[in-house]
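Suppose you are handed only two things: the residues of a chain and a line of SMILES describing pyridoxal-5'-phosphate. What would the bound structure be? This form records exactly that question and the answer produced for it, so the two can be stored side by side and reused later without any lookup.

QUESTION INPUTS
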Amino acid sequence: LATSKEFHSPVYKDEIPTPALLLDLDLFERNLNKMADFLNQKHIDFRPHAKTHKCPVIAKKQLERGAKGICVAKLSEAEVMIAEGIQEILITSEIVSKSKIEQLIALARQCPSLLAVVDHPQPVRDFMEAAESRKVKLNVVIDIDGGNHRAGCLPGRPALDLADLIARSNWLKLCGIQCYAGHVAHTVGFEARMKSSQEALERALESKALIEKYGFPIEMVTGGSTGSYNIDSQIQGFTELQAGSYIFMDLDYRRIGSDRGKVFLDFEFALTVVATVISQSHPNLATVDGGFKAFATDKPFTPELKNITGVSFRWAGDEHGILELGDPGQEIKLGDRLEFLTPHCDPTVNLYDRLYVVRADRVEDIWPIAARGKSQ
Ligand SMILES: Cc1ncc(COP(=O)(O)O)c(C=O)c1O
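ANSWER OUTPUT
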């Protein structure tokens, strides 16, 4: 990917063409270090989810800071990361079609430590056949439903049956269990979140005990999120955390509350979208050059201005957002560049080709979001 340095080389934050994605390097580094130090202290492995940033530069920083590997959601994201020399990768979504299984085998040949999840006997049989015919070993992880029925086999007997099937092939290696409970991550209130996370992981840990009782060792129990980082890490038998959003933070996470209060500010808002006021014909309105194409719109709340209160944002189309200024005298004027906190970081990042990495008012670097749009 050609970075904008080739056609536009902003030295100062004020020169970045908007709308753009900004990463505050100081805050990013604090988030990076805080999670790494926390998990290190708890003796829990870290496999951060790269679906959040889709950026090999960030993945490498997470690995340098002690992560055991990374997660990706899709094969095409894995391809990008492998091309950048990253090897320890878990693909956390199920792969079932024949063509994707062939692609998985080709990637596993290049990257023998690649891990793929399974939750049904059919793809396990297809994996076996493809691995055997291509003479490539495949590492697999049994995905167990964490209770929200998004994916994963049922705990207990179905998980054991999968382990038994996997063990029949010399070409498959059972490496662990995944249990990601998506509903837990954003459960509001620390106590409620702790309860639902414990319930979800209990299903996985009981299945682990059952599978091991039948002689199949399970070394890895992987899952969890930014919202459950300080819950799952206390649970005996849980071995690695998959948190992703901690690196950027977003408004959806802020509202979940922490063990210290009603807002979750364990990690800082390192990611913002900067937009410019391009029209201001009404006394208490201002229009910015960022709308549906600048922010993910899946949440029931809108972007929020960083460091400015009393102003609300409403969607005004693909390329426009309108600011409603509580006080007409408010200091927002044509040409102003404003930074917004994003409602949901992962799908917002997927809208941009590059991250402008800033420290104070300077652009320190531009990092390509190389796996942006890689959803296959
Ligand atoms: C399988 C899996 N693991 C981990 C995560 C990371 O969660 P978060 O970004 O909320 O930390 C996600 C996010 O959707 C996920 O799908």
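WHAT STANDS OUT: The chain has a mean pLDDT of 96. The pocket of pyridoxal-5'-phosphate is lined by residues 49, 52, 71, 92, 180, 182, 185, 225-227, 242-245 (CB under 6 Å).
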